[in-house]
């Protein structure tokens, strides 16, 4: 199937090279082709008119750029592996799986447990073909989503995590997707499949970290299946550089009485998108999604979060916070849907923003669609500046304005940061935010 | 001989202050020497808090004219934090809540800022722990309050006690207490007064704004001033407070008009 005139010649070129050197695993090949066809039909969502999903984000800067598929470029990736712990959270107690520029790094230390399997999708296809077949792509619908279609068209490998009933909550899986910067203008398509079998427990961290000073695109898709009575604690960390684009798609499906607790941290991207959807597909499922976004200069962060209560007795807590500086812009689109038979649903969503400059802009749109009648639901959004009186109070105790404002901004962030209960990760994030958090650029009423 | 060369701790000369283009202070004169306690009384809205906040450097209070010398130095030229580091302390009439800010972190930053100004090293975490513990027991506040976020969700009285804890930690040379006694229960009033008395020494001074005689039973003022409509209309000794309590402000207004 050759395209006659593609809008995206580089993607076309790279697509035809994917898997060409391998004795192909047919399942992945079978997934790629239809996704590529869809991508060619719909392309990237550059048109915003009438497109509710992309109303507040202009993807043309991404669509107009040519990105080279990083795994097709051969380079030595050994160096970054050694210094990985400078850029990512780490602990000897964690099970690591590392991809650098889209290429799996088998040398990253791998702790082995019987109760939790962590491998590449390739390995999973050998050991758990039925599971992969059943789940991979099931929730990551790409029929109307160009980025998911593109990711699926480039599925070559990915991370596979399988937690079984005997797993314990203190087991931590650390997935690292590093863009090394050795390939300029590169794109990677990280893919994660996580299956938490009934009664299992697990903490999982997804790290998307870029060291690339030129432009780059991370187009990731994660699918998480939380089966009956399973509990997943999930962290998503996105640390991009100034010219980095990040489009992250997360799809979670929860069965009865399962728990999914997630915190997302987004920092640094020129354009960042956190598209996170949770389907509560079993009775009594509980989900808590929190997030912290920090935008500086002219960065743009789009949080597109939805929770679909499809079954009764579910609870959901959606709580995001944003810190915006410079002329940056952020979007919070929160959509909570309560289906007709999802009675006794308890859903709350909140988005709070701290604006550090007059030219920063937030579009916060929490929305609730309720079709059931016996529910408790609420939503709210706030945006404000640092309070001058509060700042004066601190200064009157001897703190200079900069220190005082940094303490206040950090305290604002802490409400989300404190949700991280893995110590090495918490420390890592606190250090990152300490480094990135600007001091408020307020017009301090100075002395007479 | 040496003493004569020492300027007053605080010297306010003809201070005029306006807020949002409305003149509130209309020429305040006040001199406070080390070792003294001054009480400032006066009806609601007469400008007592405006005076206290102006001295602390609150941005929205703009000094129209006049002069304030603190140990002979131009106080009004200093940023609020520099005033604090030089030993000025305002206990707020309505202390602010610092959402999410741990008391420990805040107090340590405040103490360290002052120490740094004085050329001392920052306290180690352990040293500070002990220091905080000592002060908490000295001013007899619930240790739990010092583990929470600063003033967040505190009751009115708890906030006032917390101001006194901060004062005890910063050991100011000039303490301005803006109605610290209002909203305190009898025990707290006694504790706060004892706290203030313990801090008193020949080299520092206290200016306390109050509506009530009762705190003056614990802290005996050397001077009582009555502020009406932006001016100090009468000054006297401790007896003046009693007289005011008996006769009310109309008596003063009549006298000065
Ligand atoms: N930030 C402000 N904005 C507008 N007006 C103000 C502000 N602060 C003070 N004022 C006004 O200035 C006047 C004096 O207020 P101030 O707080 O100094 O009075 P006070 O003597 O402390 O009264 P109280 O005994 O009630 O505490 C009042 O009329 C008040 O409304
Ligand atoms: Mg007042």
Can you walk through the features of this model?
- The complex is a heterodimer of chains A (448) and B (257).
- With 448 residues, chain A is of the alpha/beta class.
- Chain A has a domain at 9-282.
- Helices cover 23% and strands 37% of the residues of chain A.
- Chain A has helices at residues 9-17, 26-42, 60-63, 78-87, 121-127, 129-135, 146-153, 388-395, 401-417, 423-436; strands at residues 68-69, 95-100, 103-104, 116-120, 159-163, 172-179, 186-188, 191-196, 201-210, 216-226, 231-239, 244-254, 259-267, 271-280, 286-295, 300-309, 315-324, 329-338, 346-355, 361-370, 376-384.
- In chain A, the strands form two sheets. In chain A, strands 1, 4, 5, 7, 8, 10, 12, 14, 16, 18 and 20 form an eleven-stranded mixed sheet that branches. Chain A has a ten-stranded mixed sheet with strand order 3-2-6-9-11-13-15-17-19-21, with helices on one face.
- In chain A, strand 2 and strand 3 (103-104) form a beta hairpin.
- In chain A, helix 2 runs antiparallel to helix 7 (146-153), helix 5 (121-127) crosses helix 6 (129-135) and helix 9 (401-417) packs antiparallel against helix 10 (423-436).
- The longest helix of chain A is centred in the first third of the chain and has 17 residues, at 26-42.
- Chain A is globular, with a radius of gyration of 22 Å.
- The model of chain A is unreliable at 1-5 and 442-448 (pLDDT under 50).
- Chain B is α/β, with parallel strands linked by helices and 257 residues long.
- Chain B has a domain at 10-95 and 172-256: 3-Layer(aba) Sandwich (Rossmann fold).
- Chain B is built from ten helices and ten strands.
- Chain B has a six-stranded mixed sheet with strand order 6-7-8-3-9-10, with helices on both faces. In chain B, strands 2-1-4-5 form a four-stranded antiparallel sheet.
- In chain B, helix 6 runs parallel beside helix 7 (186-199).
- The longest helix of chain B has 15 residues, at 103-117.
- Classes of the chains: A alpha/beta (448), B alpha/beta (257).
- Chains A and B meet through helix 8 and helix 9 of A and helix 3 and helix 4 of B.
- Bound molecules: adenosine-5'-triphosphate and magnesium ion (MG).
- Residues 48-49, 93, 178-179 of chain B line the site of magnesium ion.
